[in-house]
Amino acid sequence: MRVAGAISALAQEAGITAAINPNDVNAEIPPNPQMGDIGIPMFAFAKLLRRSPGQIAAAAAAILAKENSGETFEAEGPYLNIRLNRGETAAAVLAEALKPGIQDGDGDFPFGRPASLNDKKVMVEFSSPNTNKPLHLGHLRNDVLGESVSRILAACGAKVRKTCIINDRGIHICKSMLSYKEHGQGQTPQSEGVKSDHFVGRWYVRFSKDLKEEVAQRVAGGIPEPAAEAEAPLMIRAQELLRKWEAGDGETTELWQKMTDWAVTGMKETYTRTGVSFDHYDFESQTWLLGKDEVLKGLEKGLFFRQPDGAVAVDLSAEKLDKKILLRSDGTSIYITQDFGTAVKRHENWPFDQLVYVVGSEQQYHFKVLFTLLDKLGYAWAKNLYHLSYGMVNLPEGKMKSREGTVVDADDLIDSLRDMALEEIREKEREEEVGNPGEVAEKIALGALHYYLLQVSPAKDMLFDPKESLSFTGNTGPYLQYMGARISSMLRKDAAGENLQGQAQIASASAYTPGAVSDPEWELVKMLAAYPAAVAEAAAKLDPSHLTAYLYDLSRAFSRFYHDCPILNAETKELSRARLQLSRAVMRVLKDALNLVCIPFLEVM
Ligand code: ARG
Questions:
Q1: Cα–Cα distance, 16 to 10 (Å, whole number)
Q2: How far is the CA of 21 from the centre of ligand 1 (A)?
Q3: pLDDT tens for residues 323-368?
Q4: What is the pTM of this model?
Q5: Residues lining ligand 1, CB < 6 A?
Q6: Each residue of 516-537: b (16+ CB within 10 Å) or e?
Q7: Fewer C-beta within 10 Å: the chain N or C terminus?
Q8: Ligand 1: distance of its center to the CA of 71 in Å?
């Protein structure tokens, strides 16, 4: 703001009465830290002052230099470059990051809480599995994206409601049910010693296998492929089961309830394991009828039409979205039907300012149609619906096979990451040091997984490389966890020895004196100061990769500082104390940011 003042003074000198717009003073980070900490381009003022940007920069620098603020001002071409007062700035930043009375790592960390979304109500729907088989690698990306985005939005002041729809009805569930009904012979997850969602998944695999055989036989008998499948006896029996379910048949409902419970119970175990939680669950079995009503309302209003075969459809060619069936000819719902009802009910129960659907990019068309139709049905809030679309995630060829052989199972993947981490701990003979190797290995596995999945922007397809994700060096979760453990260990050492921090009044801020802040320390202070903006950016773009990138930069800056600046053995006690404070501030920000991207913090590893 003093810059705006200086430019106003220049204007006055020249007898110009028009006012300077302070919003035209935009701070940038110079491309090279040697040039200064902040650079402000002067282009915006050239017209008003009728001078070249370079002349304005030079004149403003001269005015500001007279203030003796401890900062330096230099003109470099059209830029006014500012070097901040390092000691003062460090003190101010550390005072914020070390605010007293707040325990490290608890939810009340006020630094990095930008308030950019204060009191906005955002509902985030994510995970939303089908109940015919367990969670897979794609869900892991979905889950961590949804959980992380929710935490980031809340950090910016939003009221967040995490919600999950369990798609527990439809033909896919009937397939698992049919196989179990025909071959299950009273087996249960308990009797087989299998995680309950995996148990359900086995029957789905069985169905697929049996169907494949049936289809092959029929194709060999001369029936063309699509018909061979659609009219296979197994498919017909599965359809029958769906109709029975929709008609509320007692025996079918009972079986469905049992298998749904198994599936959901198993999935919730995986959520707990990965640190994912929901404020609310919807069940398609309870919302699909509401959806039917919405479709029929649209039919009445003339927005939709009935086809000669009885199906309800809508023509969206004007929107370039083709024709879309909304209700089948036999009156049964399809996937999109239930989404109408669920959306309407959600807004009734919790009137949101925004609803974010975290769902794979293969459903882009689905959500375009859904949002367009809700708008046509007259729901004003339809414009506040947003599809946070994410790309596919694959494993490098031949790396790991799921138990069921096709997709990569979530539990299996985490198990093998954990086993690899445990192996590493054993190889390094750190079992005693870490205390509980199994628990630490599990946290490293989650850190590796979550970081790897989040450092790619959601929209991009990606390859998950288990080995690379676990590396302790490089751009990985374990590298960040290691940095946290390293700082923790140093702070423990200090507490056991001279306890310089204990003596320091943390509240009275930094022990840094002007001139004592070397380049690596200064870089670190600037990184700390950038934390709130990094959180705000991740929230604004619904993209946690802004935070993972921040975390990596912060860790690298710390690593440089740790390498270049003796901490416990600094030249003076005062300097030791200052550097310990800086380290503690880094640790708090690290811990807080790790939590926002669902990476467990480790005291030792
Ligand atoms: N269960 C669906 C699937 O696995 C995803 C549901 C996404 N959410 C929604 N409201 N349609 O494909």
A1: 9
A2: 48
A3: 999 998 888 788 899 999 999 999 999 999 999 999 999 999 999 9
A4: 0.93
A5: 125, 128-130, 165, 167, 339, 357, 359
A6: bbeebbbbbbbbbbbbbebbbb
A7: N
A8: 55
